Amino acid sequence: MRKLFTMVALGLALLMAQPSYAQKKAKVTNHTIQVNTPKRPAGQQDVIQLTTPKLETVRVGFIGLGMRGPGAVERFIHIPGTQIVALCDIRSERVEKSQEMLKKAGLPEAASYSGTEDAWKKVCERNDIDLIYIATDWKHHAEMGVYAMEHGKHVAIEVPAAMTMNEIWKLINTSEKTRKHCMQLENCVYDFFELTTLNMKKQGIFGEVLHVEGSYIHNLEDFWAYYWNNWRMDYNRHHRGDVYATHGMGPACQLLDIHRGDRMKTLVAMDTKAANGPAYIKKQTGEEVKDFQNGDQTSTLIRTENGKTMLIQHNVMTPRPYSRMYQLVGTDGYASKYPIEEYCLRPSQVDQKDVPNHEKLNAHGSLPEEVKKALMTKYKSPILDQELEETAKKVGGHGGMDYIMDYRLVYCLRNGLPLDMDVYDLAEWCSLAELTRLSIENNSAPVAVPDFTRGAWNKVKGFSYAFTK
Ligand SMILES: NC(=O)c1ccc[n+]([C@@H]2O[C@H](COP(=O)([O-])OP(=O)(O)OC[C@H]3O[C@@H](n4cnc5c(N)ncnc54)[C@H](O)[C@@H]3O)[C@@H](O)[C@H]2O)c1
Description:
This protein has helices at residues 2-17, 21-25, 69-78, 92-104, 120-125, 138-150, 165-178, 192-202, 231-238, 246-255, 276-285, 369-378, 386-395, 401-414, 423-430, 432-441; strands at 33-34, 58-63, 82-88, 111-113, 131-134, 154-157, 182-184, 209-217, 264-271, 298-304, 309-315, 327-330, 333-336, 342-345, 447-448. The chain is an alpha/beta fold. It is globular, with a radius of gyration of 25 Å. Nicotinamide-adenine-dinucleotide binds next to helix 6.
């Protein structure tokens, strides 16, 4: 009997050792694409947890006052401890519009710069400015950021702050060399649901986070016509890949503690063909575009060093409800912001005091609304107090998150604290533009994501905010 059993087991083992039909046919090569990580220049150190001398007043110069820029001017009018020193846009009428806002607020006129392509350089060269705030089109961001830091300024740059690996490394190297802050203005990490969920995650409510999702899904057909010189449609026309990944990446990376104990290792990306981009151009201009680069929908999967995954999507072309996805899958729970804000938790994760008598919780359905509300109050982000929340909602900017972002930037600069987002966050969140293109153009081959910290990704354990007390 035992002999028979051994023979059957041996036979089974042999059978299992045979390659399957698919395996026999497949030719597997190790085809991960490696991109270059430039060596850190001699004498330079990382800027993890960078602190700089306290600033009593943050004196700011704005560059780029199109659709987005004036909102930032308005927010700085309301943020205590700031002074608006200079306003710059290539178009003088845009500068005038922002000057009007200062006047209405009873503030002194700022110095105006406009008229030439490089008038912005004069703003960076002034010696009475601490922070340069950039909200131009994407192609100018990195060059302006580097120049500002080279001239002794901290810099805050709208999303995406850099479009290529070359630009990313220039910003990193300049921030490391000059010891100046280089922050990307990623506002979505300050939305109320994201802030609360991040805090819940930090308190272990979801167990271990395994998977996160984020996206920029926003049909821009009503907006294309308003971008200066058609820059945004042109960029999509000429560039394949996820060119606007940061709104999804920011909140997702904070949940996974990227370069604070984990790091992105490999990504693969795939896109659909470009349908609505060329159709839009044809409708507007009659031009038949045969080589439109950006697919209507681009999807990216990323795996991290610690075995977590991320799914990131980009779609600015097709009719769909706006969504940044924002989903978290943990060993003990789940969070999702779109299409409705919901949580699902093991009942053991919920304090029974927060559960009304008639509710029975389970781990396969959304938490009842009352329980969700109680949790959201209990786990409100430590960066929010009543005054900030009320002012943020009043001044606005995407429901308040833009104000909280600018407020935190100023708070940290005034108190000499590390900023919530550093130049490596900027690098990681922007790197998708070029890395996804590489993957897509190589039949969705895996691409190794560089360690932008060059060895320091495990130095800090877990994402946190800095406070004075
Ligand atoms: N975080 C968000 O929620 C959010 C929302 C909207 C836009 N944005 C970002 O803000 C930035 C600006 O977008 P927008 O919608 O305001 O575009 P826009 O085209 O309305 O504005 C860009 C402005 O830059 C100016 N400009 C261009 N070249 C210049 C130069 N050399 N010197 C000075 N000014 C120059 C243009 O005249 C224009 O006024 C983009 O990076 C965009 O992605 C972010």
